[in-house]
Specification:
The chain is an alpha/beta fold. The chain is built from 11 helices and 12 strands. The chain has helices at residues 40-52, 70-80, 92-129, 134-138, 188-204, 220-232, 272-306, 313-323, 326-331, 334-338, 345-354; strands at 2-8, 11-20, 23-30, 60-63, 85-87, 144-153, 156-166, 169-170, 176-179, 213-217, 240-244, 255-258. The strands form 2 sheets. Strands 6, 7, 8, 9, 10, 11 and 12 form a 7-stranded mixed sheet that branches. A 5-stranded mixed sheet has the order 3-2-1-4-5. Strand 6 and strand 7 (156-166) form a beta hairpin. The longest helix is centred in the N-terminal third of the chain and has 38 residues, at 92-129. The two termini are 51 Å apart.
Length: 356
């Protein structure tokens, strides 16, 4: 592996490249958190220990900054399970690898700085649109957007998503999915109400951070039930905006509907605030759809067993545990099925026929 750390105007990047059998297999830029102000060698040491604790390690490693100390070599050996040689690039080919990794780290920093600048401009434009004072936006941290969407197929396996944008991009570790329960199939209003209520119960209890802005993928009806849910929780002060799809659901034709009674707004297609809203809304939609598909697939797999007379929760659980899933059950012969605790020969034959 080749690891190069570059520090430029307060931004730190470690580029890690892999070479196997003399072939360059690609590289990836990493931006270690809390690395600002640290020395390059310190950043590189911490990164290597963290990276190789969860990734396979090579036998040789070329670096663009020398690491001093037997302790680090020993620690890396303990982490990787073998001696990891920290080599100095002397051959022309090895030097070119290190130089390439260094250049790619520099390019990654420049790209990230451009992204940060662009995202900052979008956030500022959205803040201006909302007439949101900067002091309020920055209270307690960075400007945070949470966006909700509902996904189902004719009411089946309804799933709600909540995605988060904060700082320079999406915070995937803060994403949440909600399996919507006890609502009439296809009732998007009830689904939105339930999901918003479940998400912000912890905020009302002081156990979670409140967003600067809540986006609801939907029109006046979805916005109204979301606001009602927040008011019931004592969070009616939070700003909520509905993102209603335009004519023929064409991107760029969205209408923004405000919870504070302002007139709806349709932004021009090149407005930076609209671009940010679209990015967050599209991610909420993607996350909801993927969750719905997984839930629907799981429901349909399980329902095939549930439809067989004599199969209840305990026997279904025993079958899945024994065969590892529906595919294994379907591939089993009658004799194999009857070996499972609680499955008689007669029931085994019934299962065998039903799954074929």
């Amino acid at each position: 592996d080749i690891a190069a750390v570059v520090v430029l105007e307060g931004m730190v990047c470690v580029n890690l490249a892999m070479v196997r059998g003399g072939r360059h297999l690609g590289d990836r830029a990493h931006f270690p958190s809390n690395a600002t102000g640290s020395q390059a060698a310190e950043v590189l040491s911490a990164f290597l220990c963290q990276h190789y604790s969860s990734h396979p390690a090579p036998t040789r490693l070329y670096l663009n900054h020398p690491l001093v100390g037997e302790d680090l070599v020993t620690l890396l050996a303990e982490i990787t399970g073998h001696n990891l040689r920290l080599a100095t690039a002397r051959r022309t080919m090895h030097k070119s690898w290190v130089s390439m990794a260094e250049q790619n780290a520099l390019i990654a920093i420049q790209a990230r700085r451009s992204l940060l600048s662009r995202q900052a401009g979008r956030v500022d434009a959205l803040r201006d649109l909302l007439a949101w004072p900067e002091a309020e936006a920055e209270e307690g941290g960075e400007f945070r957007i949470e966006c909700f969407d509902i996904s189902h197929l004719q009411g089946e396996s309804t799933v709600g998503s909540c995605v988060v944008f904060q700082g320079d991009g999406m915070r995937k570790s803060d994403y949440r999915r909600f399996n919507v329960k006890d609502v009439v199939a296809g009732d998007d209003y009830a689904a939105i109400r339930q999901v918003v209520q479940r998400r912000y119960e912890k905020v009302a209890a002081g156990e979670s951070v409140a967003p600067s802005l809540i986006l609801i993928d939907g029109g006046k009806g979805q916005l109204a039930v979301a606001v009602e849910a927040l008011e019931e929780l004592g969070l009616g002060h939070l700003q909520v905006v509905g993102v209603a799809k335009g004519e023929a659901r064409k991107p760029g034709m969205e209408t923004l509907i405000f919870s504070d009674g302002r007139e709806p707004v349709q932004l021009r297609t090149d407005h930076p605030a609209l671009h940010l809203i679209q990015e967050v809304r599209d991610e909420a939609h993607r996350f909801a759809v993927s969750g719905h598909r997984a839930q629907r697939s799981k429901t349909r797999r399980t329902s095939r067993l549930d439809e067989i007379a004599g199969i209840g929760p305990q026997r279904r659980k025993a079958l899945i545990a024994h065969f590892g899933g529906l595919q294994g059950i379907a591939a089993a012969e009658v004799e194999q099925l009857s070996e499972v605790s609680g499955i008689s020969r007669e029931l085994a034959e019934r299962i065998y026929q039903a799954l074929r």
